[in-house]
Design goal:
Layout: H1 17-27, E1 31-32, E2 34-40, E3 43-49, E4 52-57, E5 60-67, H2 71-79, E6 81-86, H3 92-99, E7 111-114, E8 117-120, E9 125-137, E10 140-152, E11 158-161, E12 164-167
Antiparallel strand pairs: 1-11, 2-3, 2-6, 4-5, 5-10, 6-9, 7-8, 9-10, 11-12
Length: 175
């Protein structure tokens, strides 16, 4: 705050202290890593996301944040369906593959179609979703979707924390 009580506005290209601190706080939050996929005209599409969450149990719903500039978002606006592939601990290579730009993300990737959506092989969890609502949120759009199929494997999930991949292990309570 300046002496007159106003909040200084960063000049073009600079980040405010609040934005820098926000990034640091969010970077210290351990998040699951997932790949959102869809099919359009028989061709698979996908992108890595770290912003998704359970929204409701009745009906079962999730929310996923997709970048406004995402090619996948444009496709999901048309198809209104997506698969949510929760990556397992050993799949950081897939996270990086689907995080990059380009149309050939599925080249060399093991996947199959389930419920009409691409499911990556070896994931810790998988959800098939029907978009109910798309809500703008800053530089992203939040897709709220009803889950119509789900499955899981008993393996540890891939997580992202402080700019690095890892996993999560539940603490075992002593008897």
């Amino acid at each position: 705050m300046t002496p007159n009580g106003s909040v200084p506005v960063p000049s073009c290209g600079q980040r405010s202290a609040a934005e820098v601190d926000f990034r640091k706080v969010m970077g210290s939050v351990c998040t699951p890593v997932s790949v959102v996929t869809t099919l359009e005209e028989g061709r698979p599409h996908g992108t890595t996301v770290s912003a998704f969450a359970s929204l409701s149990l009745e009906p079962p719903m999730v929310l996923v944040a997709l970048d406004l500039e995402s090619d996948l978002l444009r496709i999901i606006r048309r198809t209104r369906r997506f698969g949510l592939n929760v990556l397992s601990a050993g799949q950081s290579d897939l996270a990086m593959t689907f995080a990059r730009k380009g149309a050939d993300k599925f080249a060399g990737v093991s996947w199959g179609a389930e419920a009409g959506l691409p499911r990556l092989i070896g994931v810790a969890g998988w959800l098939a979703c029907e978009v109910e609502q798309l809500v703008p949120g800053g530089d992203h759009v939040v897709a709220m979707a009803v889950v119509f199929a789900a499955s899981h494997d008993e393996c540890s999930p891939l997580t992202y924390h402080r700019r690095g991949f890892g996993t999560h292990a539940a603490l075992v309570a002593e008897a």
